[in-house]
Input
Amino acid sequence: MELDGKVVVVTGSGHGIGAAFARRFTSEGAKVVVTDQDATAVTAVAAEIGSVGLACDITVEENVHNVAELARSTYGEIDVWYSNAGFSGPRQPGELSDNGLWDLGWNLHVMSHVYAAREVLPSMLERGDGYLLQTSSVTAVTTQIEKASYTVTKAAALSLAEWLAVNYRPKGIKVSCFCPGPMLTQMLLSNNFPEGHPVLSMALRPEEVAELVLRGIGAERFLIVDSDSALGALRAKADDYDAWVDATAHPSL
Output
């Protein structure tokens, strides 16, 4: 899909890669609607790209509808809905307790995507065209042993994207799921990695990520990745799932 002239909603676009997407998509001629929980950031990014925005919590279905209505009243029907907002949380090895992160992860990484699809699919199906784009994580196809709720809900996001693609791609709706590795955003830095940690050297800048996703959209690829690690994990699981589990649990072996 070419973005020139398209109406695009990007959730979580007040900061990090979401803001980078908003800027990059705008540079391609898209009419981007900004939404984030941070009202100050929404105002700043919307002003920067010459657009509109709405500060809200997209885990509430009515708020998703309100964002969609803002897009429609300002620019017309929505061509692309990018469910990008996410939350990582602290590293807690072996932690399965009810610490609030399970509900947050489920509502943000899964249900907000469901709400978006419910909102925009009817119009897209009428037109026989539209794009549902989601950010998941490389952990959706691998695992992150310090973050149970994050790993599980990001895997659910990928599974939802697969279901949407199987059901709606034959009807003209494009579906892509972006499964990135580490990115130089506040979410990553909040993990307080020590200086010189390998993850910091391999992390991509938001602008690099935005360019990569733009190419993925252009090719209308379902799975968009930023390294070979995701594809390597998928191949390893298919070859020998038990060996993959053992290697992931004991990476030094």
